[in-house]
Amino acid sequence: MKALEPISKFGGNIRNVVHKREKKTKLGLVPVTVILEIGDRGRFRRMLSELKARGIRITHVGEREELRKRIVLIGGKMTVEDLREITERMEGTGAKVSDMRLSMGEKGMAVRLSLDGRDERVLEEALSLLERISEERGLLFLKALEEKA
Amino acid sequence: MKFIIVGFGNLGKGLIKALSQKKEFLEKRYGLSPEVSAVVDEYGAVIKEEGFSFKELLELVEKGRVVGGKRMSGREVIREVEGEVVFELTPTNIETGEPGLTHIREAMLSGKHVITSNKGPLVVAFKELEELSKKRGVEFRYSASVGGAIPVISLAKKILTGNKILAIRGILNGTTNYILTRMSQEEVPLDIVLREAQELGIAEKDPSLDLEGVDTACKITILANAVLGRNVKLKDVKREGITRITPQMMRLAHEAGFTIKLVGMASEKVLEVGPKLVPLHHPLAVSGTLNAVSLELDLAREITITGFGAGPQETSSSLLGDLVDIHQTLMGKNK
Predict the structure, then answer these.
(1) Are residues B91 and B210 in the same domain?
(2) Nearest C-alpha in A relative to B297
(3) Range of the domain at B183
(4) Between B167, B247, B256, which is nearest A148 by CB?
(5) Measured between alpha carbons, how far apart are the two ends of chain B, in Å?
(6) Nearest-CA distance from A139 to chain B in Å?
(7) CB B223 within 8 A of CB B123
(8) What pTM does this model have?
(9) For residue B38, which phi and psi values (nearest 5 degrees)?
(10) A138 and chain B: CB distance < 8 Å anywhere?
């Protein structure tokens, strides 16, 4: 239980917990493997510090970094050709448009894009470019509220 | 404690009602006996140096405006009538700050403390007024100018004093929040929801200052100056309103677990108002006419407060809070 609190405090989502009872230590302690998802590396580090502060011994840390994702909306008068160009220019930044949803209305088109990037820097660059393109074409560009302002 | 009320619209009337309702509470709890020596509106001024009874004041509220008063301007009353505090509650003019700006300057120059809900003077001349109040040794409070009942300025300046405030984000306009909430619920165009809001008295006949984000930009300017210690003007705020939001955008946002909100943001580097995708579970995803403000802090991390951002009764909560604060500050100084 002592270990669960810091994980939940930093927004970790536990996927799996394995108690290795057959591999008890000389002191009679049971090693436990916890597989969890957590938002970013900063939180991960803070969570580890707090676990250690609570006397939990961490013997091995293995990380697998997931792709970062961002969702944006663009609205206004645009064509399918515009969207193709936007997608291509996105890929020039290293980010990838992994999903695109369109909806048509009287005031033009609304587009939702999911962007994937290997790190924050790539995504920030892609978002800045999208914002610039939207401004150039008089489109409305909406970003998601970030965790920190 | 004697004061002068300049501006007798909904807020002035709301203040008188709240004072009348809270008179005994203020006396008992804080030793503060409120006495109004003058009320001024555009028709004139009623003055009673020894202080009006609350019966007389409530009769004035019933009449709806100053009747049978002297032909004196707010400036003249502030200069000539006795009073420790001036409540400046005239309508906002974000271009010139007038007539509020003149009233506040005059009050400070006459050695009177000032409480205002008026965004105009704060947007036009915040630094000047802060400096003038210090120079003249008078107190200056403006909690009611941002967030109505939400004590965001007091929270930041009086309670969270051990923290450095890194950033502010807020839903600071009830009208646009109501419109966006209804658009999100019904997936109908903005103009239809706007008509509904106007019928309910939530939106003004001319709602452009709200819809174009100007009102939120004024509030974020005030917060940036008052709370973050920046020196910025309204023109420095990067601004986009909600007029281009469509039901289609709302639907796409919703499907991905977001809603769309008009968010004001200020930090050392950012000064911006615009529609943002806000996660549905986020503390700023408040509904209807509610306002919400999140402060990002170095020690406390994040604190969000929510409440009603407008309305005479709600705003009088902040005005009375400022009055008690000034009273206690003066008591502390006199000890």
Answers:
(1) no
(2) A148
(3) 157-309
(4) B167
(5) 17
(6) 9
(7) no
(8) 0.83
(9) -160, 145
(10) no
At B122, which CATH number? Answer: 3.40.50.720
Claim to verify: residue B140 and residue B167 sit in the same structural domain: no
Residues B97 and B18 both lie in one domain: yes
Considering only alpha carbons, which residue of chain B is nearest residue A104?
A: B248
B164 to chain A, any CB pair closer than 8 A? The answer is no
* ipTM of the complex in this document: 0.83
Q: Kindly report, residue by residue over B47-77, the tens digit of the pLDDT.
A: 999 999 999 999 988 888 887 778 899 999 9
Quick check: B258 and A103 CB within 8 A?
Answer: no
Q: Are residues B87 and B42 in the same domain?
A: yes
Residues of chain A with CATH 3.30.70.260: 68-143
Instruction: Please give, rounded to a whole number of angstroms, the shortest distance from the CA of B184 to a CA of chain A.
Output: 15
Per the structure, the count of domains in chain B is 2
Q: Do B324 and B234 reside in the same domain of the chain?
A: no
B300 with B325, same domain: the answer is: no
Residues B25-28: contacts with CB under 8 Å, at least 24 apart: B26/B320, B26/B324
| pLDDT per residue as tens digits for the range B2-16 | 999 999 999 999 999
- Answer yes or no: do B113 and B225 share one domain: no
CB contact under 8 A, A106 and B276: no
Give the closest of A110, A143, A144 to B246, CB-based: A110
Question: Does the active-site annotation cover B112?
Answer: no
What is residue B97's DSSP assignment? -
- Hey, is B83 helix, strand or coil? coil
In this structure, CATH architecture of domain A68-143 = 2-Layer Sandwich (3.30)
- DSSP per position, B260-322: EEEEEEEESS-EEEEEEEEETTSTT---TTEEEEEEEETTTEEEEEEEE---HHHHHHHHHHH
DSSP secondary structure letter of residue B170: E
Identify which of B173, B126, B166 has the alpha carbon closest to the alpha carbon of residue B147. Answer: B173
